[in-house]
Write a structure and sequence with these properties.
By secondary structure, the protein is mainly beta. It starts with a helix and ends with a strand. 12% of the residues lie in helices and 39% in strands. The longest helix is centred in the first third of the chain and has 18 residues. It is built from four helices and 24 strands.
Length: 326
C-alpha cells in the first residue's frame, strides 16, 4: 500500500498537530500513521489512522486523576484534521545490548567476522555494549567505503569525536584493541536521526552482503504500509516482519538529552513469526523482501509488546550523512 504525495502531506500535517498537542506528555512514546491494533490484532482491513502510542491507557473515570498527578497531560482527541486517532500501548527502548556477563560467542555473528558484512556485532571502543553493523555505504564526496549503524551503537556519547575507534565484534562480545576496524566519522543526531557512519581502517574488508541472507543490498527506498521486510541482526539472527506504521515521531533519551527521532517506521511480525527484534539488534538494515532495497535502520523495540520494532526511514539518513548504498 502506497501513500500518494497529497495524502502523505495531509498525514504529515496531522502528525505535526498531534506532536504539538502531546509534546510535553510523558505518557506518549510514539506518534505515527498506521493500522489500528485491537486485542493485539492488526486491523489492516480498516483505513489507517493517526496512532498516539502511550505507556498506559486511561479510562474516562481515571483520566482526570492521572492528569492531576502529571502521569499524562490531556485527553487525546478522537480525530485530528479529519483523520481518526487510535491509542495503542507501547514503550520503546533503544536496542543495544549492554548488561549481563560476557561469555564466549556461540553465534558467529557475535565473533570476529572476515570479511565483515551486515548483521554482525559492532560497537565503539569505550562502552561495554554491542549493536549491529547495518551494512556497507559509500561516502558521496570521496567514494570511500563506510560502516552505517546507529548513533547509539557507534558513538552513544555527546563527547564522541571523529576518529574514535570502532570494534568488530563489539566490546560486549569480547571485542578489543586488536579488533579495531573503523573510525567514527559523523552522525545525524542534529537531524533527529539515530544514525552514524565510520570510515574503515583497512584492517578488514566490508562487503555488500547480509549475514545469513547471502544476498547483497540492491538499493534504497521508502517503507510503505504492508511492506514485507526482513533484517539480519546480531541477536535475533534473521528476522521477518511487516511495516504497520510510517511517518513516526518518537522521543528518546541519549546521555540525558531528549531527542525526538523522526521518520520512524513501526514493524510487527507476521502471524507465523515471533518477536522481530531484541537487545543488540540496533543498527541493522530492514530490507524489502521483494527488491532487497534497504528501507529502514532498526533502532528500538517495544518493551510492553516485545514483538514490535522501530526503524528509521533510510533515505533521510543517507541524505543527512551524505552517503549512498552500493
Amino acid at each position: 500500500m502506497t501513500t500518494n504525495q497529497k495524502s502523505r502531506h495531509h498525514v504529515h500535517l496531522a502528525i505535526r498537530e498531534a506532536i504539538r498537542l502531546t509534546i510535553v506528555d510523558p505518557n506518549v512514546t510514539l506518534i505515527d500513521y498506521g493500522w489500528r491494533i485491537r486485542d493485539n490484532v492488526l486491523r489492516d482491513k480498516e483505513p489507517p489512522c493517526i496512532r498516539v502510542h502511550v505507556i498506559k491507557k486511561f479510562a474516562e473515570s481515571e483520566l482526570e486523576a492521572a492528569i492531576q498527578v502529571g502521569i499524562t497531560k490531556a485527553k487525546i482527541p478522537e480525530k485530528i484534521f479529519g483523520i481518526c486517532v487510535d491509542v495503542p500501548v507501547g514503550y520503546y527502548q533503544l536496542g543495544q545490548r549492554w548488561w549481563g556477563r560476557w561469555r564466549p560467542p556461540a553465534d558467529p555473528r557475535r565473533g570476529r567476522v572476515m570479511p565483515m558484512q551486515g548483521g554482525i556485532s559492532v560497537s565503539d571502543a569505550y562502552r561495554y555494549i554491542a549493536g549491529t553493523l547495518g551494512g556497507l555505504v559509500f561516502d558521496r564526496a570521496t567514494g570511500d567505503p563506510m560502516i552505517l549503524s546507529n548513533f547509539h551503537v557507534l558513538a552513544g556519547s555527546w563527547h564522541a569525536r571523529p576518529g574514535w575507534p570502532i570494534y568488530q565484534p563489539g566490546r560486549f562480545d569480547g571485542g578489543s584493541w586488536s579488533d579495531r576496524v573503523a573510525r567514527l566519522s559523523r552522525h545525524a543526531m542534529a537531524d533527529n536521526l539515530d544514525a552514524a557512519v565510520a570510515e574503515l581502517t583497512g584492517e578488514r574488508q566490508l562487503i555488500n552482503n547480509q549475514f545469513g541472507l547471502n544476498a547483497p543490498v540492491s538499493g534504497a527506498g521508502w517503507a510503505q504500509l504492508g511492506m514485507r521486510v526482513k533484517m539480519s541482526c546480531r541477536t535475533t539472527g534473521v528476522s521477518r516482519g511487516r511495516v504497520t506504521g510510517i511517518l513516526g515521531d518518537s522521543p528518546h533519551y541519549y546521555s540525558g538529552v531528549e531527542k525526538r527521532i523522526r521518520n520512524v517506521i513501526n514493524i510487527m511480525p507476521r502471524e507465523e513469526i515471533g518477536d522481530v527484534s531484541s537487545n543488540g539488534d540496533s543498527g541493522a538494515f530492514w530490507l524489502d523482501e521483494d527488491t532487497m532495497n534497504v528501507v529502514g535502520l532498526h533502532f528500538a523495540q517495544n518493551s510492553l509488546r516485545p514483538q514490535d520494532g522501530l526503524a528509521i526511514d533510510i533515505l533521510p539518513i543517507l541524505e543527512a550523512l551524505n552517503v549512498g548504498i552500493a
